[in-house]
Amino acid sequence: NAGVTQTPKFQVLKTGQSMTLQCAQDMNHEYMSWYRQDPGMGLRLIHYSVGAGITDQGEVPNGYNVSRSTTEDFPLRLLSAAPSQTSVYFCASSYSIVAGSSYEQYFGPGTRLTVT
Amino acid sequence: GQSLEQPSEVTAVEGAIVQINCTYQTSGFYGLSWYQQHDGGAPTFLSYNALDGLEETGRFSSFLSRSDSYGYLLLQELQMKDSASYFCAYSTPLVFGKGTRLSVIA
Hints:
The complex is a heterodimer of chains A (116) and B (106).
Chain A: E1 4-7, E2 10-13, E3 19-25, E4 31-38, E5 42-51, E6 54-57, E7 64-66, E8 76-78, E9 87-94, E10 106-107, E11 111-115
Parallel strand pairs in A: 2-11
Antiparallel strand pairs in A: 1-3, 3-8, 4-5, 4-9, 5-6, 7-8, 9-10, 9-11
Chain B: E1 3-5, E2 9-13, E3 18-25, E4 31-37, E5 44-49, E6 53-57, E7 60-65, E8 70-75, E9 84-91, E10 95-96, E11 100-105
Parallel strand pairs in B: 2-11
Antiparallel strand pairs in B: 1-3, 3-8, 4-5, 4-9, 6-7, 7-8, 9-10, 9-11
């Protein structure tokens, strides 16, 4: 198993550009999520999904879109990048969507995004 | 509101014991998780407490008191490789505290 994979590892964007961060998992996990990590801010939840076709907002959803067309993939789209979106982005997945059971999440290696 | 509070930094000596505390406030609580993250790496799951009490996993233990909205992570026989950031988190969805940076010194 490859686990959770993310591409690209590094990306530099100019303000106003758009891009999609890719996330895939091969563990047949129902639950997937996106976090951003900034110095001193911990991990903040952007969006999450409890299954194909179902997504919901986290703590900091503004400026980001997601969709979940398959169990395996959960891409994160930045429609018009801003310098405030400079961050490290982590995708994570867990097996069960039963309430309270997403406590053990498997994280991808992260994407380091810089917006100039 | 919903929040988790943990100390920003802790320093401890190699071979010693260190406790990282976490207090939380949330309307819907299922349990408290702990994650470890080394610099430049991804967070990895350490432990989970759904019920009050102590859970032990090797050198690491985690404790939860639901009535006090409080938990802690206990690391014993500290090693240099334990230098990392440690996050408490509650679910669902999984929401993290800001993390505690542990430095282990010789």
